[in-house]
Amino acid sequence: xxxxxxxxxxxxxxxxxxxxxxxxxxxxxxxxxxxxxxxxxxxxxxxxxxxxxxxxxxxxxxxxxxxxxxxxxxxxxxxxxxxxxxxxxxxxxxxxxxxxxxxxxxxxxxxxxxxxxxxxxxxxxxxxxxxxxxxxxxxxxxxxxxxxxxxxxxxxxxxxxxxxxxxxxxxxxxxxxxxxxxxxxxxxxxxxxxxxxxxxxxxxxxxxxxxxxxxxxxxxxxxxxxxxxxxxxxxxxxxxxxxxxxxxxxxxxxxxxxxxxxxxxxxxxxxxxxxxxxxxxxxxxxxxxxxxxxxxxxxxxxxxxxxxxxxxxxxxxxxxxxxxxxxxxxxxxxxxxxxxxxxxxxxxxxxxxxxxxxxxxxxxxxxxxxxxxxxxxxxxxxxxxxxxxxxxxxxxxxxxxxxxxxxxxxxxxxxxxxxxxxxxxxxxxxxxxxxxxxxxxxxxxxxxxxxxxxxxxxxxxxxxxxxxxxxxxxxxxxxxxxxxxxxxxxxxxxxxxxxxxxxxxxxxxxxxxxxxxxxxxxxxxxxxxxxxxxxxxxxxxxxxxxxxxxxxxxxxxxxxxxxxxxxxxxxxxxxxxxxxxxxxxxxxxxxxxxxxxxxxxxxxxxxxxxxxxxxxxxxxxxxxxxxxxxxxxxxxxxxxxxxxxxxxxxxxxxxxxxxxxxxxxxxxxxxxxxxxxxxxxxxxxxxxxxxxxxxxxxxxxxxxxxxxxxxxxxxxxxxxxxxxxxxxxxxxxxxxxxxxxxxxxxxxxxxxxxxxxxxxxxxxxxxxxxxxxxxxxxxxxxxxxxxxxxxx
Length: 792
Known about the structure:
alpha/beta
């Protein structure tokens, strides 16, 4: 059987949606004005959303709506009302990040299909199985997962899969990035990322600059030349990034990927490259096949520019400022109307004294120019007029025409009836109010009726004569305008029927909200009753070197978290084993899953984790969920049956902190009160220099059991080699690697609650965490003492 894949296209506007559908997309993902991870995209208001759903469904295209941000306690009612609106308007699926909201959707809207957003950082089969248990029908896997990993996950789980195949890449694992939120207060998990990864940085090793440029700015993903590998992988849905892109971009990318998904085996390498080149003329930051298809680390980032580079048009031969002319040797075709990297559009092209509309690669031309380009410099084409115009034309008129059949029943003295059936078997019957009368002369015949009824114009249907039947009592008369009315009304009924594609039970929105409020009230009342006045605070400490462990011992803390086997073994000489918790690597992709699972047998079944799959798998043991699980409301904190959960840092250190008082079962929550937040975790190695350092210290995947000998340690023995990322303001971000060799980036500012811990304790919280990064023994002791003193 020929393999097929859904082509899932982005739409930030109605024109982009039409462009995607006209060029072959099977499904569209878009956002409304609320709860979507692209706050600055066009997005759809309620009325436009209804129009988009109707337009797509009539053309057999599904609509998935992004509700892919973390939701705060104060927003839950608005979220449920928004989901109700989407449910009632027949959205095919919701793309969800917030695990708490996923539980509520499945509770109150059980027939609503949900897809796990890439923001959930699902990267292995354990994550997938957990999400299936919650009720997800599809997982959008991390961009860092390889084809081989996705094959393995699908073989184990049989879960429907979706993967990005084209467009912008995040350099951090999506959903695990706090860079924007912690440095600019614009949250990627809340849809308003300020994209600090697209800024300039320099990488320093021991104070010396190793590399500089746009060191975190990923190239765009392009897999179009590897379409057969994608098809063979079994990925169900090919997702194209670009909700903030113009309709012409969407049209061009969708057209070419649809062609590859349908005809890959017939398309030559040269044609594939030509397709990629056409897309390149619309937008590109240079291309990579990404981690999905195993591109080399050095090919992931473009350190020279974070913007649309365009396509090399030619090389400057001279700049004749007196004549205001620029001489160019072309390496690509150009035409009047093309845009150039000079910031201008080509107004005319000169070949000697001849004025031309276009020129071919290899030719030398002159352009009108006032500027400072010099001989030898490159000039790029950033706007290709002919490609853009062709893309725009592709969706200006209806080009989808589904076959239909019609039967017109005309009998004297009866109401005319028009039966219409589409290609999927949907039938509608239109009965007109008029009474058919005997014709004075010749009545309407089949040919005349067909001509009028087949004039379908700008609707997505097509009627052939073989699919039309006239049933008549003979010489019966109806006018051409009558026939036109029959057609319009019958087609409107068919459109209405096609637009409603999902059979769902009706809902009582106010009843759902009342039920949710009643349950919430019961839980809050129960929480007040559970609050004890004779409580005592418990302090946990995350230690990354032996000095910090000594400090934790001296201050008699309740619990200790450690990241390495060496520190764990050393900590056992200072603490009772039940006090020690091992920190599972933040991201464990499928290729590392078996090895890490085996490795964890060394740690006494007490773990801190950011992995949803690990939290669920080890739910019968002593597991604490960490802050990168993005638990940002009471329902999310209860999503995992684990010992304790950590709220997201965006909740604790954001404007919504006062709503922590509404958390249920506060004794099961641990609050980080002091830490240097991890801003990013990335599969990308910042430079070849850092990659060399990382390979010396991180654990070999095949030998994690020997971790005590060769891991990256936050230890005094390794302080002679330190890497820092420095921004343009001089802020320094600490760079290191975890057990699996992934790059971790820590903030330049500590986050502290200070005396605010008193309010939290008074509200009923009793478990607090202090996290150290590079603090020495004395500093660590002083911090622990300070927080203990706040609660004396």
